[in-house]
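Margin note from the TA: students keep mixing up input and output lines. Inputs are the sequences; the output is the structure of the whole complex. Example:
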Amino acid sequence: MHNLARSQPGYRDIAMPAGSGEILFLEGDPCDHVYELRRGIARGVNVSSEGDRQVTAFFFAGDQIGLPLSECYRFTAEAVTDVLYVRHSRVRWHEALIRSCREDGRLLPSICAEQDPIFRRGMIIGRNGVVVRVCAFLTSIVDRLPISADGAALLPLPQTDIAAYLATSPESVCRAFRQLREMHVIAMPRRDQIAITDRARLEAIASGIVTRLRMLHERRPTATADTAF
Amino acid sequence: MHNLARSQPGYRDIAMPAGSGEILFLEGDPCDHVYELRRGIARGVNVSSEGDRQVTAFFFAGDQIGLPLSECYRFTAEAVTDVLYVRHSRVRWHEALIRSCREDGRLLPSICAEQDPIFRRGMIIGRNGVVVRVCAFLTSIVDRLPISADGAALLPLPQTDIAAYLATSPESVCRAFRQLREMHVIAMPRRDQIAITDRARLEAIASGIVTRLRMLHERRPTATADTAF
DNA sequence: CGGCCCATTGACAGGCATCAAGTCCGGTGG
DNA sequence: CCACCGGACTTGATGCCTGTCAATGGGCCG
């Protein structure tokens, strides 16, 4: 639609809005456009042949998704929060890629940027233990989350999506959150907001330093014991 | 590819050998070369910070691995079987990419080819049930396996690697194989060889058509019931 | 022939998926 | 402004799956 406008150099991009749950593009559709996320969070969704849904990646402001690595999109892109995005014509994006390729001597980092989340998900769900997976997930995206007024990172993702991303059930995600809440690793001021309060512990659990999950339950509220490790 | 070989006298079509277990390149090393697998099977390996090993992808003859999508290799590449490979200089591979990009109007399919296995692994291990995962895994690679004399596909992969790929334990893989063996879906003439004997059933289980794993045990050897779907 | 590594099998317990019910919250309409 | 409603989250109970440990077997190589 506004591709013509975009072809004029120097023209200021007009970001299009999409409401929560809205579909940006569908898995299997031809890769005619590259979507650049300007604001909000989107998810990549794959539906198995008999209906079970997997969230294969979360995307944030600045990410480019729907790259024409193959003929068709490999996942469906949906808005998680309300988003703003810009659609780039495939051929134009391609020209920019080649130009950047020749100048920098390497591939456009955006290719890496779309593949990295997918790769990271494989690393995360390849580990066993829901709590570990949740912590690894939070660690992997904490840097890209918006910051609340009190300085804590906010996670406006529904738990159903997190469960579909972590290959587990919403109930298990909820229970994992409760454990982390009781450990004061995270706080949940509101239903749809999660604030990371103790990032060091979070990363410790994510990296598997806590060998036995049992230790999580044997939490000692004693201040000295807590700060010991 | 052929262009590369031509422009490098002396290295033309001379494939280098690597024995089973040998390392082609290490995770974190700078992407100086692209490795083209000519023969055999290789694996992509990632080791977590505290030591647990994950096989993130299997690669087969014809695949190009170690693509310079970022500055460093994202995984370690090791030979599973004995392999033959060709090493392409990064800059030369890059030139060929740009050329192919301009001519075909699309990215080199090899980029997709390296990312696809990683993506597929996420899909596979995102499902629950070891038997389902094993069947999905076999389905995803059955087309690329060598064929034995009697026409059955052969899978020369150690079960430890399959377990590390499927994010499960070697014991569970072994038990899943035993179930499939008893169902006459696969056969294992030798320790390191797996022949797919009933591909339709394999794909049925992989796609989740069998809703309850329980049904697998209640196998009906009746011919009519078997061929029903 | 002996040693080593991998595959196999059994026993066991713990984690987690599942089902079910209850609670909270935002949005809608009166 | 308030009541209602629907969806998401929460929590509990239960059984299965599977990870873990341990021991055995089997094949390959030195």
